[in-house]
Specification:
Helix content is 43%, strand content 16%. The strands form two sheets. It has a six-stranded parallel beta sheet with strand order 4-3-1-2-9-10, sandwiched between helices. By secondary structure, the chain is an alpha/beta fold. The chain is globular and about 55 Å long.
Length: 274
């Protein structure tokens, strides 16, 4: 039996999904959340579809032991490769981060030229381009895999000359295509938003799927009458719980730096048991 005050489950290949968790906390501060970061097996962007589906199923089995009321796949690569498959495995709402970002890009573009940056896996899947074209068939989509950006973010090099140089080289191709809208198609990338904005220029609208996904989740929970009851949520247990498959201390430090609230503890689990 799903209850209103059950937590929301959120998972990612590592720390990038914390940008989604941050937006959920901002948009729905009354909700409880359980976050899992697969820090032992990051990155997902270079792995096969079958491997990503297997990893996603393990994580969903773990989250189901926590009796979550909904699941957010806070990883573009897992959303691209696993969402439609794992939807069939669960009887609770489950969403990814791609649809909401794609819709916002279509709504934002004025010249019909949209850029996508993401991991190799996300770009290779063609999922953003496919979803965007369903909404806007005449659109011109330019995609660019940026595999070095995830490790730079994981190192915490948000404002660094190396990050500037690497990002500039990736974005130069999209600038030459005159895109007026750019989707940050990896949940790590919002942490480089100021760098990307400076390099792309003020005339390019950046789409943050983390924010758009939190808004979509709030709407979905409202439709299903699953928004928590503020009167009784305090009795429901620990508000935010964090789990990883490795490097718990490093995760705690990183999460505390970007989330609105201090993360006191991160628990390490063996995800292969699920």
């Amino acid at each position: 039996m799903i209850t209103q005050n059950a937590p929301i489950g959120v998972f990612d290949s590592g720390i990038g999904g914390l940008t989604v968790a941050r937006e959920i906390i901002r948009q729905m501060p009354q909700e409880r959340m359980i976050y899992f970061g697969d820090t032992a097996r990051v990155p997902y962007g270079s792995k096969s579809r079958d491997t990503i589906i297997r990893f996603s199923r393990q994580i969903i089995r773990f989250l189901n032991t926590k009796k979550v009321k909904a699941i957010v796949i806070a990883c573009n690569t897992a959303s691209a490769y696993a969402l439609e498959t794992v939807k069939q495995d669960v009887n609770i709402p489950i969403i990814g981060v791609i649809h909401a970002g794609a819709k916002s890009a279509v709504d934002a573009t004025k010249n019909g030229k949209i850029g996508i940056i993401g991991t190799e896996g996300t770009i290779r899947s063609g999922i953003y381009e496919s979803v965007i074209r369903e909404m806007m068939p005449e659109v011109k989509v330019s995609s660019k895999a940026c595999p070095l950006l995830v490790p730079l973010v994981e190192e915490g090099w948000f404002h660094d000359s190396v990050t500037d140089e690497v990002t500039s080289r990736y974005l130069s191709e999209l600038k030459s295509k005159y895109v007026d809208t750019l989707v940050l198609g990896c949940t790590h990338y919002p942490l480089l938003r100021s760098t990307v904005k400076r390099l792309m220029g003020e005339n390019v609208t950046l789409i943050n799927p983390a924010y758009e996904t939190a808004i979509e989740l709030k709407r979905l929970l409202g439709e299903k009458n699953l928004l928590c009851d503020p009167e009784t949520v305090e009795e429901a247990g620990e508000k935010y719980q964090f789990y990883v498959s490795d490097l718990a201390e490093k995760f705690t430090s990183f999460a505390s730096a970007i989330l609105p609230e201090q993360v006191k503890e991160t628990r390490k689990i063996d995800i292969e048991n699920y």
